[in-house]
Amino acid sequence: QVQFVESGGGLVQPGGSLRLSCTVSGVTSDSYAIGWFRQAPGKEREGVSCLSAHDGRTFYASSVQGRFTISKDNAKNTVYLQMNSLKPEDTAVYYCATDRRPMCILNYDRPRGSYYYPYDRMIDWGKGTLVTVSS
Fold first, then answer.
1. In a designed cystine with 57, which of 20, 43, 52, 87 is the match (CB 3.0 to 4.6 A)?
2. Looking at the predicted structure, is the pLDDT value of residue 99 above 90?
């Protein structure tokens, strides 16, 4: 059983930064690709970023590209999401999850012409941490 515990959320002003942590148990953090998702009130859960297990490949949603960075510390069995230049629209509950595959397998949204990391394929989820961006 894979378990995740997220931490690091809080209230931050627009333009500020936060670093979220996802502590992994049940497996090592280099067993599976691990993703960060978020869900704002009234909105669908969105795949924000993914880090493959072995080769360091990453995925970022276009909404966070250039502002967020995913990384991990295998010695601490922890995956991080560094969030910079935060905007009010980043306000959401952030979750980490895995589909128990070693690579970030993306889906293609043909109408939008872009790739995304699908939340409905994930098997294991944490309980989330709330990020609020407001002045």
1. 52
2. yes
